[in-house]
Amino acid sequence: MKKLGFGTMRLPLFNSDDPTSIDIEQTKKMVDLFMDRLTIKCQD
């Protein structure tokens, strides 16, 4: 997994027609999962 390959340019939205309607809770879950996987990979 690339360290900078998370791809935050495509954040989950509540409304696909409104780029400001970011689903913050879903974004937090995605970032947490990414960081967990990154931490595990770095420990190997």
Q: Concise description?
A:
This protein is mostly helical and 44 residues long. The chain contains one helix and no strands.
Protein architecture, described:
This protein has 44 residues and is mostly helical. The model has no long low-confidence stretch (mean pLDDT 81). It is elongated, with a radius of gyration of 13 Å. Helix content is 45%, strand content 0%.
Proportion of residues in β-strands: under 5%
Uncertain segments of ≥5 residues (pLDDT<50)? none
The succession of helices and strands, N to C, reads H
What does the overall shape look like? elongated
Q: So how many helices?
A: 1
Sheet having the most strands: none
Indicate the percent of residues in helices: 40-55%
Structural Rg? 13 Å
Got a strand count?
0
Kindly name the structural category: mainly alpha
Instruction: Let me know the average pLDDT.
Output: 81
Give the CA-CA distance, first to last residue: 13 Å
